[in-house]
Amino acid sequence: MEFYRFDKDNGKKITHFNSDFIMSRIIQTNSKANIGCMHLGESGIVGYHQAVVPQLLLVVDGEGYVRNEEDTYHYVKSGDAVFWQKDEWHETKTVEGMLVIVIESEELDPSLFMKLANI
Fold first, then answer.
1. Under a CB-based contact definition with an 8 Å cutoff, are residues 59 and 93 in contact?
2. What does the alpha-carbon distance between residue 2 and residue 115 come to, in Å, rounded to a whole number?
3. How many structural domains does the chain have?
């Protein structure tokens, strides 16, 4: 399990075409990728299971906890990204609710675009 940040502080200011915003790059794939949005309500959980392919979880809103096979939960909040390798056991849960984007693809490598976080 690896932790990354995709918040504003890890982005780059974009001014092309009269633009004024911060872009935090996340991932690029050349092969098929599945992208989904999970709405975890109060006491929501994504049960303990193995990743079928490499998986990147992006916390958009709220906060919660993630773990891998080590059975130690790690706190995550908006702007955090968690990466699990193929076949890695993992679980995600929240007390108050959390909105996450999940990207799954055989060729994910978040280290190409995001900095590792110290969690």
1. no
2. 10
3. 1
